[in-house]
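Possible regression after last week's pipeline update?

I re-ran a chain I had predicted before the update to compare outputs. Posting the input and the new output here so someone can diff against the archived version. Not blocking, just want to make sure nothing changed silently.
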Amino acid sequence: MAIKIEKKIKGYNVVKPEDKAALATAPAAPKEAPKAEVIQMHESLERPETLIGSTYKIKSPLFEHALYVTVNDIVLNAGTQHEQRRPFEIFINSKNMDHFQWIVALTRIISAVFRKGGDITFLAEEMKAVFDPRGGYFKAGGVYMPSIVAEIGAVIEQHMKMIGLIHDPEMDESTRKLIAEKRAAYEAAANGKSAKPAVEASAEPTNANGFPPGATLCAKCNTQALVLMDGCQTCLNCGYSKCG
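New output (post-update):
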């Protein structure tokens, strides 16, 4: 078969029979392993038939009935090294219908942000910063909640920690030791001032979170664990101090 050459010939090489034989016996180049497509969270991702869900109960003194917050998660890249669990939707249910419309609006907006993808951990911080003009309340454990929206944000944060989206930094050993020393010094000073017998002193009452009854609210961890030591407000829960 004749081939018409339309370009200028710049060089040529004669292929010998032995070259053809060597080329035929040469080992084939290794094929590149196919790379799996990593699926990321995005708003066009279709909802599977089944989702993994967790339900949390919120009992607030502001409401007669409890709120039940359900967060459903989607598992991306299941069975691979890139497997991850991401929140997909949220539902809030209650017998109390007084705030039905804003609760429905909140769940739809949060679910839309979940499905948008990217970093969604900011939601918890933004919601926890919402304050009720009528005042907040203390939930079980002595943790202060500035509003019901803030407690829903705390639930979302708890869920994100559970699935690994938020990693709670652990307190180092030196900080734990310092807090334990401060608490022991405070209790020793309090027992010395009260001049109670040793048996009564050991049964010193505590608040709901296990801290001295005179402790006030810490601005950092929202726990009633702030006590006055050496003229300085010190938190016996997280180690925060106004004096540095």
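Follow-up from reviewer: compared with the archived run. The longest helix spans residues 173-194. Marking as no regression found.
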